[in-house]
Amino acid sequence: MAVFDFSALGFSRDDVAVVSGAANGIGRSTALMLARSGVAVAAWDVEEQALRALVAEAVPSGGIVVPVVVDVLDAAAVERAWDRTGAIGGPVKYLVNNAGPPSTTPLAVADGVAAAIGSYAAVTEGFVGRHGSDASSVCFVTSISGSFVGGDTQDWYPAAKAGITGYMRNVAVKFRGRPRANAVAPGVTITRRTADRYASAGAQERLRAYPMGRAAEADEVAAVICFLLSRAASYVNGVVLPVDGAVICT
Description:
The chain has one domain: Rossmann fold, CATH 3.40.50. The mean pLDDT is 92. The chain contains 8 helices and 9 strands. The longest helix is centred in the middle third of the chain and has 23 residues. The strands form 2 sheets. The protein has a 7-stranded parallel beta sheet, with helices on both faces. The protein has a two-stranded parallel sheet with strand order 7-8. It is α/β, with parallel strands linked by helices. The protein starts with 15 loop residues before the first strand and ends in a 7-residue tail after the last strand. α1 packs across α8, α3 packs parallel to α4 and α4 packs parallel to α6.
């Protein structure tokens, strides 16, 4: 994939973005794109070693990435993470809500929904409560599963993703665009978590049957997230945008 730089879309070097689940996959790609675009990134994740690797990758391009080790399922840890993020300096204008349990995690429906939606809500409430005057945009990472199609994963997963879409739309209306709230709904995306699952010959054959003949790369989803965060999307609010190569059209 190309190295995208979105600085022309209105990002400022005085701005700060929080990206949860930033150590891997879509979150990692998003953190790097924002850093390349001049935004200081508070990279939230539970994986400290992976966060260090992210910081090291951002440095050569001049990007600023500050690692914040946090489990977003722990309300007290989220509050401490916001304290650390506030110490970076500059207005915290952007939030990417991405951290959550993997779709393959065996959870009861009630537990999975509570964890996925509850953690997104806790992080969003901290963002608005602490940085409401600066808050410009929040992007939720959901899925086509639940939002557009049924799921073949754990039962809780499509239920939680549909709920996140509903929560996002409520935020979009409730706060009247401060911040704007939108979501991306990826289809199959190749990341560290999913690579093994789609490596077999059978899985590759199924992917070739998709409208675009392949799965998405993490950078392709991250690019859409950066657009939705940016001033170029200044009147886009309450939208859930599928990034699935037209899978839902088949």
